[in-house]
Design a protein that fits this description.
Length: 562
């Protein structure tokens, strides 16, 4: 690869007495989620209004106090979404929304229009400052860049004075900070600060983005420390970070930069964002957590976080994604499994976590240690999934692959040999499709009314007829609502998958569903001529397993008591 010569080495910072290598992060930074702006603008299909609302609700639930909700001047859907949050009173009193705008008067004015009536808001303005941007894109000099930044700051200040009922926080980003001369970055930011006149009681935010990650994390840390040392009125400035993952070091860069003096970090859940993504706040927060530092975010239900992010972004989470992937607590090696088991056998609750191969207790994020086992010595869940997909047409989702592989494991342990494809199919059929059901859907009707679905059904529960009715945004939602009330049981749908079984007009639909009840999971699979029936029956199959387990647990408890 001789073409490497066309790339310039990155410029380092002349800072001989750097202090950040001796620092330790002892408390969480201020977090700001940019899922609804930077994350959303990177999607092939941007989030719908409902998806945005669902993501916003998740971010609030996780504990974010600052949330960038869009670029309202650049997009009518973003503008409308910001207005809906304000007009529908969706913003908790302890949460501050943030919006982004370029340093252009007409866009700043439009941005302020979107924020009318907000109790508190961060107005985030930016312009590009990097060498390549000013020379090749804007074709201007440093003075021209400073003039753009100052004019934007002045317009922000003017518009804010016209809306005194909102508590304003000003934020400025020299876009492509990492590609800008460090002394010029300070010059631009000082010029902005001269306009805004911050105080320690009313500080401004300088956000210093690695818009494109161009150097190693230590260089970014040097840039941040140099900036913190040289910016005017440091005690009136909050230094914020916004790292991207072009070199796969976004988290490392943010961590070192916090050690270098930054107080605030922007990022997204699970790292969605432009190109290779934004800094994954889940990873950085959990890194702090695993070092005994309170991350100030609630990540105890990782499955829900993954589920909502995947639903809203339509992007799968890599099974090896730190903390959130399906396989991060899985050991394939027998020696690893043995070491984990031995450590867990002697672990005492409340003691320091020292378990081989497990950096954190999976229970802390709603997971358990699960080994993924082989069909034989040469194959694991992948082999089982391959047989079911290629021979029988069943494309099992990953979570069901893991679950069913345990069933196959037990069979191979009993037989002591290789299991054949037909035997795998028989196991799958017996365990899911033809398993004994204690409850079944006998009949149902659907009625659409005012944009909502009304669902009525009759069930057979152990020979007893049960009538139910429900209402929801969709058929399945309405059925679930009615089912919970009819059975007086509260569960959550965690996983859902579907596909056609075969091709053409005669193709059937197969649905896979997983429910969560307390700490337990229950799965159901169903096949039908239409997707609605297969979805409903898959849900009933999972509920049947839930009811059987609940009855068994109740019986065991009664026997123990008597």
């Amino acid at each position: 690869m001789s073409e490497h010569r066309k790339y310039k080495p990155f410029v380092t910072v002349d800072i001989k007495d750097r202090t950040w290598p001796d620092q330790v992060i002892s408390e969480a930074p201020r977090w700001c989620s940019v899922d609804l702006r930077d994350g959303n603008q990177a999607l092939i299909e941007p989030m719908s209004v409902e998806q945005k609302k669902k993501m916003f609700a998740l971010l609030v639930e996780v504990g974010f106090k600052e949330i960038e909700v869009g670029f309202p001047a650049a997009s009518q859907p973003d503008f409308d979404f910001v207005r809906s949050l304000i007009e529908e009173n969706k913003i908790p009193s302890d949460v501050t929304i943030q919006v982004l705008t370029q340093a252009r008067p007409e866009l700043i004015q439009r941005t302020f229009e979107s924020l009318k009536g907000a109790h508190r808001a961060i107005l985030h303005v930016y312009n590009s400052t990097s060498i390549v941007q000013r020379e090749k894109v804007f074709k201007t000099d440093k003075a021209g860049i400073v003039a753009i930044a100052k004019a934007g700051a002045e317009e922000v200040q003017r518009c804010a004075k016209l809306a005194p009922d909102t508590e304003w926080v000003f934020q400025y980003s020299p876009e492509s900070f990492t590609g800008t001369e460090i002394d010029f970055s300070v010059e631009v930011c000082n010029a902005v600060a001269e306009v805004w006149q911050p105080t320690p009681e009313n500080p401004i935010i300088f956000n210093l983005p690695s818009t494109v990650e161009v150097a190693t994390p230590n260089v970014y840390a040097d840039q941040i420390e140099w900036f913190c040392r040289n910016i005017n009125n440091r005690d009136a400035v909050v230094v914020s970070l916004h790292t991207h993952n072009d070199r796969s070091c976004a988290v490392g860069s943010a961590e070192l930069a916090v050690m270098a003096g930054a107080q605030r970090v922007e990022g997204t859940l699970l790292g969605n964002g432009e190109r290779t993504g934004n800094m994954d706040i889940v990873v950085m927060a959990m890194n702090l957590y695993s070092a005994g530092v309170d991350p100030k975010l609630d990540l105890h239900d990782m499955d829900k976080i993954v589920s909502v992010v995947r639903e809203c972004t339509q992007i799968d989470v890599h099974p090896r994604q730190p903390y959130s992937g399906d396989l991060v607590f899985t050991a394939f090696s027998g020696s690893h499994q043995d070491a984990i088991k031995k450590c867990l056998d002697i672990y005492e609750e409340g003691a320091p976590w020292e378990i081989a191969y497990l950096p954190i207790d999976p229970r802390d994020i709603g997971r358990t240690y699960q080994d993924v086992i082989r069909v034989n010595s040469q194959s694991g869940k992948g082999g089982v999934a391959y047989v079911l997909a290629n021979k029988f047409g069943f494309e099992l989702p990953r979570w069901l692959q893991i679950e069913f592989s345990r069933v196959v494991q037990r069979a191979t342990e009993q037989s002591g040999g290789e299991i054949q494809p037909d035997s795998i199919w028989t196991l799958f059929n017996d365990f899911y499709l033809n398993s004994e059901k204690v409850i079944s859907l006998e009949d149902f009707s659907i009625e659409k009314q005012g944009g909502r679905e009304k669902f009525a059904a009759s069930l057979d529960y152990a020979g007893q007829a049960i009538a139910l009715s429900g209402e929801g945004d969709g058929v399945l939602d309405a059925f679930i609502e009615g089912l919970k009330r009819a059975l007086n049981v509260d569960f959550e749908v965690m996983e859902y998958g579907e596909h056609a079984l075969g091709q053409g007009a005669d193709a059937e639909a197969v649905t896979y569903m997983q429910l969560k009840f307390g700490a337990q999971r229950f799965s159901g699979v169903a096949i039908s001529k239409d997707i609605i029936s297969s979805s409903l029956n898959a849900l009933m199959a999972a509920v049947s397993e839930l009811l059987k387990e609940s009855a068994s647990a109740q019986s065991a408890a009664q026997q123990a008591a008597g």
